[in-house]
């Protein structure tokens, strides 16, 4: 099966500044049946 490549968008300087200013962390837990649960958390762990 051939892979179809699509052109990517351009990251502007405004977009780059927002990405660099974002403080993201990920919270990981495990459900009662042992499945992992990973979710993004804005602002970091407190």
What does this entry look like structurally?
This protein has 46 residues and is of the alpha+beta class. The protein has 1 helix and 2 strands. It has a two-stranded antiparallel sheet. Strand 1 and strand 2 form a beta hairpin. The chain is flat and about 40 Å long. The chain starts with 12 loop residues before the first helix and ends with a strand.
Give the topology:
Elements: H1 13-21, E1 24-30, E2 36-42
Antiparallel strand pairs: 1-2
What attributes characterize this protein structure?
46 residues, 1 helix, flat
Shape: flat
What is the CA-based Rg, rounded? Answer: 17 Å
Q: Helix fraction? A: 10-25%
Low-confidence stretches: none
Q: What's the number of helices?
A: 1
CA(first)-CA(last) distance: 47 Å
Structural class by secondary-structure content: alpha+beta
What is the percentage of strand-forming residues?
25-35%
Please count the beta strands (DSSP E, at least 2 residues each): 2
Main β-sheet, spatial strand arrangement: 1-2
Averaging pLDDT over every residue, what do you get?
Answer: 81
């Amino acid at each position: 099966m051939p892979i179809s490549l699509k052109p990517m968008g351009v990251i502007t300087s405004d977009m780059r500044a927002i990405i660099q200013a974002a403080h993201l962390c990920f919270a990981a837990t495990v459900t009662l049946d042992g499945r992992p649960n990973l979710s993004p958390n804005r602002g970091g762990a407190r």
